[in-house]
Amino acid sequence: MTLKVGVLGYRFMGKAHANAMARLPMFFPEAPDVERHVLVGRDEEALADAADRLGFENTATDWEDVVDEVDAFYNLGPNHVHAEPSIAALEAGTPVLSEKPLANDLDSAERMAAAAEDAGVPTATAFNYRFVPAIRYAKNLIEDGELGEIHHFRGRYLQDWLVDPEAPWSWRNSEEMAGSGALGDLGAHTIDLARFLVGDVERVSGHCQTFVDERPVEGEGGDGETETREVTVDDAYSAQAELEGDVMATFEASRFANGHKNDHAIEIHGSEGSLKFSLERLNELEVLRGDDRGYETILVTDADDPYVEHWWPPGHVLGWEHTFVHENYEFLSAIDSAASETPRDGGGETAGADGEYHPDFHDGLAVQRVLAAIQESDERGEWVSVK
Ligand code: SOE
């Protein structure tokens, strides 16, 4: 069966997922056949150009025409358009992948998760960092008890693209469209990794900060005056958290961390050992065990490391875009086996205890609850339980 995929959004994430689908037949021959069937957007000219470049057969300017005629719907638009098209697709019985965070507010995320529950088809929240081989390797170490009882999780995600006050305003600076700033855009990834590797977040004490309150709008103000628009989201956040099992955690993200481009780093300390990971060196995992006096740097590129046998010989390193290939492979395979009612061999790499694909909309909702609790804690100035 060839899966016809409809994709809403053709910029950054559209390119990342289209590239991933294009790589599948070459590197994951066991993946289902996939057709990049239809690309959805509003600007017809830009859409036609993108469809051509990204290898889509058709274009559509209205997602309503698409959601029930494809085998999978990818919602890669800004956060405020995640809910309605995704819910419509689920009501039509179409599996959905949504970019992260799942929605721009908790209410929308709850409605999306409820629609997923009713539809009973695979869903995905696109937390692509779960698909880094070194992160999978770390998960295996933790599950095998190599780090012992976990005491600490520390995660920070630093970028610097807004440190210039003249950097243009975009939807990512709008509460209405994005929900939050560094918190939802970057923090969502870190919180998902904490849940994936260690456990659920139970309570938080958060702090959110906006450093620049308005920004110039690109292409506006033809009369010589620069038009500006208000920034209504955080530029940075930090939070203390308690995870299940009495694990102490700290989370932090910023778009003002001068010198850091896409620096997502985590550290975990347990009774028997520790590990460190940094996205800017994503082929490596630093591990300390037992009485070691220092960390060993493991190059996670051996054939038996997660996903690696699909690519190159040891040491022929992978990059950021490969995480999308792994994610698409897992999600599309889950759709294919759900459609043919064939259980996947071992449930696939991503299957949780429930045998389903993860991270799904429920995982997206769980992260959204933490984002909302951090915002509430910042407003109230006190610890908030995650409901
Ligand atoms: C921009 O801040 C961004 O592209 C995020 O939206 C992504 O989720 C992250 O992976 C990299 O940074």
Characterise the protein shown here.
This protein is of the alpha/beta class. It folds into two domains: 2-129 and 322-359, Rossmann fold (3-Layer(aba) Sandwich); 131-318 and 368-385, 2-Layer Sandwich (Dihydrodipicolinate Reductase, domain 2). The chain is built from nine helices and 17 strands. The chain has helices at 12-27, 44-54, 83-91, 106-119, 133-143, 175-178, 182-197, 320-340, 361-380; strands at 2-8, 33-40, 58-60, 72-75, 96-98, 123-125, 150-158, 201-209, 214-216, 228-230, 236-243, 247-254, 263-270, 273-278, 284-289, 296-299, 384-385. The strands form three sheets. It has a nine-stranded mixed sheet with strand order 16-15-14-13-7-12-11-8-17. It has a six-stranded parallel sheet with strand order 3-2-1-4-5-6, sandwiched between helices.
Question: What does this entry show, briefly?
Answer:
The chain is an alpha/beta fold and 387 residues long. The protein contains nine helices and 17 strands. It has a nine-stranded mixed beta sheet with strand order 16-15-14-13-7-12-11-8-17.
